[in-house]
Specification:
It is a single chain. It is built from 16 helices and no strands. By secondary structure, it is mostly helical. The protein has two domains: 178 residues, Growth Hormone, Chain: A, CATH 1.20.1250.20; 219 residues, MFS general substrate transporter like domains (Growth Hormone, Chain: A), CATH 1.20.1250. The longest helix is centred in the first third of the chain and has 32 residues. It starts with a helix and ends with a helix. 45% of the residues are buried.
Length: 408
């Protein structure tokens, strides 16, 4: 159990920050809506996220790989807490958008830095379980965050919820500050410049060429995220217009999705030593799009609920599998740059596909959603085929798999 002292603290920090993030974003939506009365003004918040991720990923890997990740995480939590608190003091909508954009940059840096720090802190034999527990905590935040936000709105205001998130980020910073520095081989520090960024991109592309299979597998995971983002952008319209669900029923449907990912993450965490890395990836890659197809062809709430539960349940397996695969095969000293380069393409794909799906949905929501879901299923089938290649079996042999063999 002592081996889990620091990973446990890291998970606690992730959980506190994640719940606070849900409270913050829901409250921010309401604040913008109350001030403007415009649905478009709220939608700008969602547009800012992939744009900021795209622009940040162009250079963030060069920064993250060269500095102390734990100190960066603490600094990001403290600075984000200050920015979040300042949102309650801002009257100008444009200044608010600018602060949200900066916050999104911080979130992107935090996501990449935390993955590298987790890889260094958690031993390889424990990573699969750690990733499953991390998914469980994040999915619990999916349920608890909106519930806590709703309670705070009853006793206070959206501004109260925003202040609470600032406090949650400070708590996360305190938890991270007591964690150890984990120093491994790192990229030598150098002055940050355009030449450094370009050199890092060349090095990353060289890595991608020499590790083609690793790049291919993780690129398919990025493609999964792009397709899911596009489908999710049409989810509310599909549920309320095509299935004609009222807001409360749709809210219940979303809760079922949250229960699905919690169940999937719990099974992953409980049966880590029984689930191989290959199974996690193949099951998640195939069953997640099947859930979307079921939802796309649904004509009743029951069928839609089955599809929603299945897709989030399976997604927990995919997230754990792909994350563990990346941590196993991508050198930690170049992980930030490699992941950031993938995220650049991923963010651009999210923006383009979301726009395309929104345009096509003007003609037929169900047809657009169904075509996208079936396309996702084809991608899932390709992932299963790629991972099943017997000549690549060694890529999915982890120390956890050795434990599975010994337990049989």
């Amino acid at each position: 159990m002592s081996n889990w002292k620091y990973p446990g603290l890291l998970l606690l920090g992730v959980g506190v920050s994640n719940i606070g993030a849900w409270v913050y974003f829901i409250a921010l939506n309401l604040i913008v809506l109350e001030r403007t009365g415009s649905a478009f003004a709220v939608s700008v918040l969602y547009i800012l996220l992939p744009i900021s991720a795209l622009l940040t990923s162009l250079w963030s890997g060069s920064v993250v790989d060269r500095i102390n990740q734990r100190r960066l995480l603490v600094m990001l939590d403290v600075s984000r807490a200050g920015l979040v608190f300042s949102l309650t003091l801002i009257d100008s909508l444009y200044v608010l958008y600018a602060l949200v954009f900066i916050l999104n940059i911080g979130n992107t840096l935090f996501e990449t830095s935390s993955l590298i720090y987790m890889t260094k802190l958690v031993p390889e034999t424990s990573r699969q379980r750690f990733n499953a527990l991390k998914n469980f905590i994040q999915s619990a935040g999916f349920i608890l965050g909106p519930s806590i936000a709703g309670f705070l709105f009853l006793i206070g205001s959206p501004e109260t919820a925003i202040i609470l998130n600032a406090g949650a980020l400070l708590c996360s910073a305190v938890l991270l500050s007591v964690l150890p520095d984990v120093r491994q081989a790192a990229t030598p520090a150098t002055s940050f410049s355009l030449q450094v960024i370009l050199a890092d991109w060349k090095e990353t592309l060289q890595f991608a060429r020499t590790r083609r299979y690793i790049t291919l597998v993780y690129a398919f995971y990025a493609l999964m995220i792009v397709l899911m983002s596009g489908l999710d952008s049409l989810e509310a319209s599909f549920a309320t217009i095509v299935l004609q669900l009222d807001e409360s029923t749709y809210g219940f449907l979303v809760s079922i999705a949250g229960i699905g990912i919690i169940c999937g993450s719990a099974i992953n965490a409980t049966f880590t030593h029984r689930l191989s890395l290959r199974f996690l990836i193949q099951f998640g890659a195939l069953m997640t799009p099947i859930g979307y197809v079921i939802f796309a062809t649904a004509t009743s709430f029951l069928t839609a609920a089955i599809g929603f539960f299945l897709l989030t349940f399976a997604l927990a397996f995919a997230n754990t599998g792909f994350m563990t695969f990346a941590q196993t095969h991508i050198p930690v000293e170049t992980m930030g740059r490699f992941l950031s380069s993938i995220h650049v393409v991923q963010s651009a794909g999210v923006i383009l596909l979301t726009a395309l799906i929104g345009f096509c949905a003007e003609t037929s929501i169900r047809l657009t959603y169904t075509v996208a879901a079936v396309s996702f299923l084809i991608v899932g089938g390709l992932i299963v085929w790629i991972v099943q290649d017997r000549t690549k079996r060694h890529y999915f042999a982890t120390e956890t798999d050795e434990t599975i063999k010994l337990s049989l």
